[in-house]
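Write out the 3D structure for:
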Amino acid sequence: MLRFALWIALAGCSSPKRAQEPVWPPDEPACAVFDPSNEACETKCLRTAPEGWPACEDATDALIALDYICQGRKPFTCQPSPRSLKAPIQAWDTIEGAGEITIGAGMSKGVTLDWTALLIDAHHQPLDGSFITLTVVNDNDTRGSVFVLPELMPTAVGVLLQPAAPHDIIVE
């Protein structure tokens, strides 16, 4: 140790610099750039892989099985399914005693017709008797009907959307 410190002092260095030892063989990914003719790329899904590439299809299917929401057939477009979602009320109409509501969230947020929806107040608490029956889900909005007392409607500031509960699995 003393000899090393002496060497540093004589060399005029204030701190030792460690030389990076080369790693052999070089640690390079076999499929760093997508090339369909490269055998190493057959099981890889890179962003530059073409649409329909089997490795990307398999990865996307695996994520969908884990309840992810995917916008395309590449895993890079997938997002975890939300546990719940708070969305604004975009429009409200009363038709034959029922409230027709347009909610500011749709398929792009993972909403489907089997989700549950409740009106919420400014404190994000559900209003009594405010269950919304979803009728149409578009890309960016959802429509539904709700039977709620007229005096409760001014207190509604948004909608709490929740995915349907998982179905029971029956094993025979």
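Helices lie at 2-11, 54-65.
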